[in-house]
Fold:
Amino acid sequence: MRSEGDSWDITTSVGSTALFVATARALEAQKPEPLAVDEYAELFCRAVGGPAADVLDGKAPDHPLKTAEFGRHFVDFQGARTRYFDEYFRRAADAGVRQIVILAAGLDSRAYRLDWPAGTTIFELDRPEVLDFKREVLASHGLQPRAERREVAVDLREDWSQALRASGFDAAKPSAWIAEGLLIYLPADAQEQLFAGVDGLAGHGSHVAVEDGAPLPPDEFKAAVDEERAAAAEGDQRLFFRLVYNERCAPADEWFGGRGWTAVGTPLADYLREVGRPVPEPDTESGPMIARNTLVSAIKA
Structure:
């Protein structure tokens, strides 16, 4: 379970979820017609080795990402999510935004794989252990970012706004922000503080994109945690429900929409249909995950 002030690297606790998502992106890239191609996700998986690498080579048929009930839909989910946020950043760049802020950057490789206009600065915020791992893996392959990339080594439970400013962020200029795969790992009050921090630093013409998820009913969440804990006692190392808070301060589109942003929320299920991927039935293992998720983008007037 999470605790105040807990920490992690790329293979433990919350960090391991970033690796799991990178593995899903690498599997998506192997498809004949992927929704998005993150060519760097495989490098992270192979740097860690073990199941994260084996599943890419077809050597781990029992890996959770290879299951029909969960894995197939989770990989589709990550492909769709990656595509949504890639297109969001392209729109922001086309609108003239040259400051990019990636909150809880994890193994996000957009600084390296997207084509950024000249003069773009990308601020990546995350724990130092995670940023170190990403930088060292990509540098070992001789890879360089396609824009000026600035690491802001900070826990988002700390004063990240000040750390961002100290790294050269200019609140007087438009910016584009992303919170992808982040909110579920923050309690409601921390989500509120995060949104307020973005709103306070974002100048007119700024953009924000958020992956937003409705919490499970309390009894369902408790049952999921208990089931995961029981599975762990039998040797199952998968972690998810014991890492999340199952809280939400407010739907992101409503929060930003009520503060002068023009916000649009797209249910994940609708977006999956739009890009031609199947939507699982509500009573399947992955159904509730898809049904609760909304992709939100907003522009500040």
